Amino acid sequence: xxxxxxxxxxxxxxxxxxxxxxxxxxxxxxxxxxxxxxxxxxxxxxxxxxxxxxxxxxxxxxxxxxxxxxxxxxxxxxxxxxxxxxxxxxxxxxxx
Length: 96
Fold this sequence. Notes:
Layout: H1 3-6, H2 12-28, H3 38-47, H4 53-56, H5 62-71, H6 83-95
């Protein structure tokens, strides 16, 4: 769930954050934020960055880390603005 959604102000780019979470889990085999209770995960989501992808999987290209970082940006205006932009970045990242 995007930070702005947690705060009660979801918007169209919130879905792109959620897609970033799915891509992070798909590529790294874990969620970007964990913990118990659920409130801990929500607070981490709003206040912390997830573990750097290349720290967990050094063989990943820098482009993958960059793509995930932008997809999971805390501020919506720092994320990809459309699904098409995110898709293009994903395709570029996995080709390298």
